[in-house]
Amino acid sequence: MITLASAVTWILAGSFDLAERWINWAALGEHFQLDEILFVLLVSCIGLMWFGKRRFAEIQKVLDQKMQIQHSLEKKHQEASELLQQNRALIKHITLLRESERNQLAGELHDVFGQYLAAIDVNASVGLQKTAKESPLFKTLTTIQESADYLRNVTRSKLRSIKPPGLDKVGLTASIEDLISQWLSSFPNLQLKHALDLDDESIDYDTSLTLYRCLQEGLVNISRHANATYIDLTMNMDQQGGTPTVCMRLSDNGQGFEANNLIGKGMGLIGIRERVNALGGEFALKSEPNNGTEIMIVIPLNAPL
Description:
By secondary structure, this protein is α+β, with helices and mostly antiparallel strands. It folds into two domains: 2-82; 170-305, Histidine kinase-like ATPase, C-terminal domain (Heat Shock Protein 90, 2-Layer Sandwich). The protein is built from eight helices and five strands. Helix 3 (37-129) crosses helix 8 (268-278). 16% of the residues are buried.
């Protein structure tokens, strides 16, 4: 481009005799030394060239600094991404360990407590059959039988809360229906409306277990803290950017709280968020004092809808 401009200037200068014209014009202003202005222009050009070179060096230096900052940010971003992946893997591993411990505890409750309570009940029944109703022992055996029956019901209830009943066999929908039924039997004064539109075969076990535990924890939080009278639950399949997802929305009309003060509300909601994040899902919480609480969960699925 500079070469072309120089060539054009040369052609124009030669065509119009610019040098001769300049000499003739400068001669008219000899009193003002106009013919010496070329040297002034030359010095000015050299000065501008020097200034441009210095500015170019400064800009190059700033650009290098910005490139270093960008490289540092990219490195930090990569490290943060790796840490996030490791954190998700750790949370998933911890979750698996917790579920393994839950299953082990459930097995012990079923095999040990269940069998011994059944044996106590049978022995008490045999004793009652062989004891007269007027005997003081009859009342004692009756009390033992009632206590064993009560403990058996408590154990059965704890087993349901520790281990989802047949989640891998009957599917997520049936397990949630059972959870809701058991929960309503414990809190008959609460109204719970639910709508489930799920394809259980498309939802892997980890996702099903996460949704079940999140709903379980959410219902526990409502019963303990919300002071609500109405609960609404929806679960459905959806598509986000071509990726199949399962969505859960749990809301209540309770007293609510400041959503920014999540830590102050215990570890339950944080546990829900971490479980969802470990599967690459999204967790959203909306709550205001005296205006209820809403939990939104979206988890991507690997299996096609």
